[in-house]
Amino acid sequence: xxxxxxxxxxxxxxxxxxxxxxxxxxxxxxxxxxxxxxxxxxxxxxxxxxxxxxxxxxxxxxxxxxxxxxxxxxxxxxxxxxxxxxxxxxxxxxxxxxxxxxxxxxxxxxxxxxxxxxxxxxxxxxxxxxxxxxxxxxxxxxxxxxxxxxxxxxxxxxxxxxxxxxxxxxxxxxxxxxxxxxxxxxxxxxxxxxxxxxxxxxxxxxxxxxxxxxxxxxxxxxxxxxxxxxxxxxxxxxxxxxxxxxxxxxxxxxxxxxxxxxxxxxxxxxxxxxxxxxxxxxxxxxxxxxxxxxxxxxxxxxxxxxxxxxxxxxxxxxxxxxxxxxxxxxxxxxxxxxxxxxxxxxxxxxxxxxxxxxxxxxxxxxxxxxxxxxxxxxxxxxxxxxxxxxxxxxxxxxxxxxxxxxxxxxxxx
Length: 413
Ligand code: HSE
Description:
The longest helix is centred in the N-terminal third of the chain and has 18 residues, at 100-117. Strands 7, 9, 10, 11, 12, 13, 15, 16, 17, 18, 19 and 20 form a twelve-stranded mixed beta sheet that branches. Strands 3-2-1-4-5-6 form a six-stranded parallel beta sheet, with helices on both faces. The chain has helices at residues 11-22, 24-31, 60-63, 81-90, 100-117, 134-140, 155-167, 171-180, 189-192, 195-209, 228-237, 298-314, 349-360, 383-399, and strands at residues 2-7, 35-41, 55-56, 68-73, 94-97, 121-122, 146-152, 211-212, 219-220, 239-250, 253-264, 276-283, 287-294, 325-328, 330-332, 338-346, 363-366, 373-378, 381-382, 405-412. It is of the alpha/beta class. Helix 1 packs across helix 12 (298-314), helix 4 (81-90) packs parallel to helix 5 and helix 5 packs parallel to helix 10. It is 38% helix and 28% strand. The protein is elongated, with a radius of gyration of 24 Å.
């Protein structure tokens, strides 16, 4: 029998406790022995919960108990998750975490400690919730050179964008609905500003390249400036707008970014809607492979933690090689990446046609009845070149006393 502890009895932690009970037989069979929960660490008491007799408040009890071989970290955030996880690994315990902030910020160090201590630091649940993606990257696709990963990695923002797309809602109304359904936090910044997606694509990039990725180097733009008007154009154009975390890996470097992206129906991620996540991985031999499912939520995410606990149980006395090295991967600035650009411009197309052609070259034009503006879709341009063209266009319009660009959304189609 293996004794385990859970740190944090919130949504994920309670889900892990529930699955350990509910799927006890299948877990025993796969792990080779029973995994029994001994402690649940939390600041609070849960007198009416099934783990009432296991609740402890002092981390030292876990750290100093040699019986505990596997620790689940489901506290979230960095403090005290980071010192607690580090102490568990140093004490020779395996750790499974769902905490992307922890993995993105301290993964390199924690993986190294796990290697030295011959234990495991697993984090399947940190990206894509219940969707298997970390393990496929280090196991099923280990013979591949991963060239690109593009994911819809945040369920909350995907729900908001789906509402705006399908029901014509404003960003504010869709956010409110996401909050009332319990998807978005009262402070939704980490989701809507793209920070959550940034950490997740950083982890996936590091897994794919085998090198450390500094998430701070990844250009990150959220969805707060996407409007219902953008979706009106999208509808007419047969497109949609999704929050992408993308990483293109080549020659030991990555072009990585988080940004809303206009895509058409030919894109496999087009039909990833609501709170679902989708991750498209392109290997140099495999070509594209798509991972789809519940990217958040109690039981799906806890299910991924359970899989990590089982792998730890199967490797109690050995370290499973996975993760990345301390050598950092160079992340290129967004200015070097290329996209098409959807741009909304004030005024009428007939007045602006000459200037648009001067600064952006040949474009597709879209006009919506009743609006004092039009939209263009440029050809593929490097971001740096686009920014220079957009600034010069705006300056030229201002010189003539005319308003210029109202909106820009990158496009992949
Ligand atoms: N806030 C995250 C999401 C939770 O909406 O996807 C899962 O990481």
